[in-house]
Design brief:
42% of the residues lie in helices and 23% in strands. It is an alpha+beta fold.
Amino acid sequence: MNKDIKFILVFIFFLCVLQLAFGDQIFLTDQETEYIASREPIKGVSADGSGPIQYTDSKGEIKGISIKILEEISRRTGLTFEYTLYEELNQVGKAYYDGTDILFGIPDQYTRENYTVSEPILRSNTIFFANNSVDSNNLENKTFAATFGSPLPQGIKEENAIYFQSREQAIEAVDSKIADYGYGNPYSIAFYTLKNGYRHIYTIPHGKEERLYRILFIKEDPLLISIINKAISSLTVDEKQNIILAATSEVERELNLSVIIKTYGNEIFIISVIIISLLTFALFLVLSSYKKLNFQKSKYKTISEVSNEYLFEYNKSKNKLLLSEKFKTLFSTLQSLEQAHSSLTSILSTLPSDKETEIISLELPNKRTGFFRIVTSKIPEHTSKLIYIGKIIDISKMMERHNYLENLAQIDGLTGILNSITIRDKIEHRLLLRKKNDIDICILFDIDNFKIINDTKGHLEGDRVLQLIGDILTKNIPFVDSLIGRVGGDEFCVYLPKIASREIGITLCELLIKTFQSENIFVSMGSLFIHEEDSFEELFEKVDALMYTAKNNGKNRFVVE
C-alpha cells in the first residue's frame, strides 16, 4: 500500500515538472517537426508606418507587436522568419507574386479573397480621431484621412477622402489640418501621438467594428498554416497582453515639454472606462423585459393625479412592485420606466422593515439622475404578508442646491481652485492611502515680491495675478487626480499622486516656472518627492523649508528634494 502511494506521489511530481518545463510548448506531429527542420526561412512582408503593430525605428530596425508575435512563434516552433517592411502599399501588393510566403499584421479589411489567414494575432477596437477644430457632430463635407488599400467607411464619399501611404501619415495629416478626421485603432493613435507629440487631435470611442490582425498565407502550405495557428493558439491572453505592452513601451519620443504634457496615458484609460461602461449598459438593455405593470387601485390613481407625488404598492413576500400611472409622467420612456421599476424593487427588497423613509437616486430619461425621498408604510391588515404602500417625492432641486453649496465651500472664491482647508483634507487622505512604491510629489510656492505688487499697483492688480496663477495651474497640470489649492495669501500648493517618474515631476516644475515667467510672474518653489510616512504637518514643514531655500538662493527658481 505504501509503495502505491509513493508511486502516485512521484508520478504527480513528474507531471508538475513537465508542466513547468514545457508549459509554453506546443504539440507538433512528426510530419510538422520534419517540415520545420528542413524549412528555409519564411519570407514575410508588411506595410511600414503602422506602429506599434509593425514599423521601422530610427535605427532601421523592424519592430512592433507583429514582430514579437513572430519571434514567439519562432521560439515555440523552431521556424525562422525574414521580415521586410515597405513604405508604399503597392510594394506590399507585389508580395503576392515575388515569392514571399506571408503577409503579417494585416487587418481583415486588407486581406484578399481565396487566401488563407491565420488565427487573430491582435484584436482592437476602432476609435474616431479628429483635428481640435472639427465638430464631431458635423462631418458633412469634412475631409477624411484614408490609407491606400483600405475601403472607405460607410457614408464617406470618395471626393471627401485624401489617401495616405501609412497610418502615421494619416494621423499627421489630421494633426496638421490637411485632413479633418479619420478612424483607426487606439494602439496606433496613442503610439504616434506619443512618438510625434501631436497637440491638435482629440479622440472618441467609436463602435464601427472590431479590427482583427492576422497572418495571410500567400502560398497554400497546409503544414506551415497548421504550425503557425498552433503557435498562435498556444499564446494565452496574458502572454499576448505582455507582448503588446512590451511593443508599445518601445516608442521613441523626444523628451520635450510638448510630448510630456500631451501624453495620452490618461486618455486611453478614460476611453477604456467609457467602453467598459457602454458594454455594461448594453448588457443591461438586453435583459428580458418585464411584464406590463398592473397599476394601482383607483383611489391611489386619483390621489396620484392631484398630487406631486408618485405612489406605489410593494409586496415584499413576493418581491412584486406596482407603480401608479403618475410614474409615466416622470419616466416618460419605456426603457426609463422599466429601469426605475427594477431599481426601486431592488431598493425596497433591502429596506429594513422598521425604516419608513430613505433618500434614493433613480435614472431619468436622457441619462439624468433624480433624487427622491421614499416614504413607506406597512398595510395593517396585511402585516403577515409584508405589503407596503408608499410614495417617492422628487427632491432633485433641493439636492442640486445642497451639492452646489457643498462644492462652493471647497473652492477658493478668488482663484477657483481648492481652498486651504479642502486641499489639506485631501492631501491628508492621500497620505493615508499612499503605498510605499508610489511616486508622489508635493509642490509649494509663493509669489516673489507680492507685497510690492499690492503696494505699487493696488490690490486689484494683486487679485488679478492670483487669478492668473489659478488659471495657469488648472490649464498646465494634465493629471486627472492632481490636487491644486491656495493655502493662503499668495501661497499655492500642488500635490500629484502616483506619477510615472521623478523626471515628470521635475519637468512640471520647470514648465510652471517658465509659464509664470512668460506672464511676468516670478515665484520661489519647493518640491518634495514623498519617501516617508509623514503627517501633513511634517510634509508641509519640509516642503516649506525647500521653498524658502529657493527664495534665499535668489528667488525665481525651484528646489527639489
